Amino acid sequence: MNKNPPALKTCMFVGSSRRDLQAFPDSVRQGVGLALYEAQNGLESTSVKALKGFGGRQILEVVEGFDGDTYRAVYTVRFVGVIYVLHVFQKKSKKGISTPKQQIELIKRRLKVAEEHYKQRQKKED
Predict the structure, then answer these.
(1) Rounded to an integer, what distance in angstroms lies between the CA atom of residue 70 and that of residue 113?
(2) CA proximity to 87, closest of 6, 4, 22, 13
(3) Which terminus has fewer CB within 10 Å in the chain: N or C?
(4) DSSP state, 100?
(5) CA distance readout (Å), 68 to 58, 95, 121
(6) Which of the two residues, 46 and 55, has the higher pLDDT score?
């Protein structure tokens, strides 16, 4: 009996998220990269949690700390065979743990971009 491993999901970056990730400290990039790789394999890293306000576990965020700062990468597993990295940022707010409203609005806009990209991609495959 030959069991092939499941196909690795494609990882797509929306907007400036790839460039923003590249600007992070090395250890943060490595932590985010590992979490995304695990997601590509259908797993969920221990550094990942659901992003509140999006209902369920389809919009996730990786939280990494470095030198007293907090870094986040938000991605979605909503689509079959592909992960979209929607936003990557350093959390600046010193009060509260919630994601600032302007960041949530950007994530929502980029989610719409990802949805449109996925639909176009599906049309090409049909």
Answers:
(1) 26
(2) 13
(3) N
(4) P
(5) 28, 14, 40
(6) 46
